[in-house]
DNA sequence: CCTCCCCTTTACGTCAACGTCAACTTCGGT
DNA sequence: ACCGAAGTTGACGTTGACGTAAAGGGGAGG
């Protein structure tokens, strides 16, 4: 527990762990979402920073803007918020919860339709060209590589 | 049934129904996501166009790019896709399904934390300043209006 | 000492998804 | 005939979230 809480991380370690780039982490810092310690000039991330980053990444996947994530982190960290700030933040936050519930339904629906489509494609392929089926992924990659020799796509940016 | 399928819609009608702008619909058309009929110069949307728009809006809320949505619509419309296109599309689509499932979990978690935060704020407010609580929304709006007289924000853009 | 390699900052570039004019045309109502 | 509302097509601007190139620091290994 304390052993974990005392761990520190380099920028690269966190990048690998969360599939982000160093540029992104520095950018988040610029925006006030992170504030790692420094050893000289080099950033040293604590496990608390790591937890924050985890929240950030989750927020990004969901589709929140960095500004929204910033607001939420402040909220969860229970920083200096007086009642007035809370009175302002509460309805906004309630609205976000509603939006999230809508999104939940959207995604459930999307998964359903998408899985049907996948199954249908698989059946169709199995019927007409079963040879393309088991290694469909390899086949696709092969085609892609013939098209353009761009091999550098470590992660989907999306958004 | 046929009665519904024969209905047509003006651009404004669809805008109001889905909370989009006319500019957005035309933009989607530019990108090949919609292709309404024309009466003279004016766009006339069919119920099939409406269904497509519904898919588009859902996709946007989920966070898909227009390019991805385009690909999906083509898929679901079962347009001219030969087996080769399918062999390419299938793994990509499977990957998206996985991403969606990840997103589903993310959102469940986010809803949970967010609701806890809301409840906590509500309790704290009720304890210290119950006067700000029932009309918290009005209070917030009031504060906002004092800050900046910007009253034109019909919809959240997000993205 | 030199060479790598990873780190840093600063600055400008990019891409998606529209928003925002500007400058018309078209149509229903008075 | 005229008005106003709603429609159209460009063209340019904006915002968010980084990417990328330039220019350099610092320490570990040979």
Strand content of chain A: 5-15%
> Which regions of chain A are unreliable across 5 or more consecutive residues at pLDDT < 50?
148-159
Query: From the helix content, strand content and strand pairing of chain A, which structural class follows?
Result: mainly alpha
Major sheet details of chain A: 3 strands, antiparallel
Separate helix tally of chain A: 7
The radius of gyration computed from the alpha-carbon positions of chain A, rounded to a whole number of angstroms, is 22 Å
From the structure above, extract its key features:
disordered C terminus, homodimer, DNA-binding, flat, mainly alpha, 159 residues, 7 helices, three-stranded antiparallel sheet
Describe this structure in words.
- 2 copies of one chain form a homodimer.
- Helices cover 67% and strands 6% of the residues of chain A.
- Chain A is mainly alpha-helical.
- The first copy, chain A, has a 3-stranded antiparallel sheet.
- In chain A, α4 crosses α5.
- The radius of gyration of chain A is 22 Å and the shape is flat.
- The first copy, chain A, binds a DNA duplex (30 and 30 nucleotides) through α3.
């Amino acid at each position: 527990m304390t052993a974990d809480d005392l761990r520190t991380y380099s920028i690269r370690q966190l990048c690998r762990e969360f599939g982000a780039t160093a540029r992104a982490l520095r950018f988040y810092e610029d925006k006030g979402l992170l504030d790692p310690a420094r050893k000289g000039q080099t950033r040293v991330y604590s496990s608390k920073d790591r937890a924050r980053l985890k929240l950030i990444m989750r927020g990004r996947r969901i589709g929140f803007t960095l500004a929204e994530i910033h607001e939420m982190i402040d909220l969860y960290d229970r920083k200096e918020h007086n009642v007035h700030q809370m009175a302002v933040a509460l309805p906004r936050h309630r609205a976000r919860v509603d939006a999230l519930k809508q999104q939940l339904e959207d995604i459930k629906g999307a998964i359903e339709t998408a899985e049907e489509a996948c199954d249908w494609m698989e059946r169709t392929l199995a019927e007409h060209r079963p040879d393309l089926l088991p290694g469909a992924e390899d086949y696709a990659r092969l085609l892609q590589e013939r098209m353009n020799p761009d091999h550098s796509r470590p992660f989907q940016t999306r958004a």
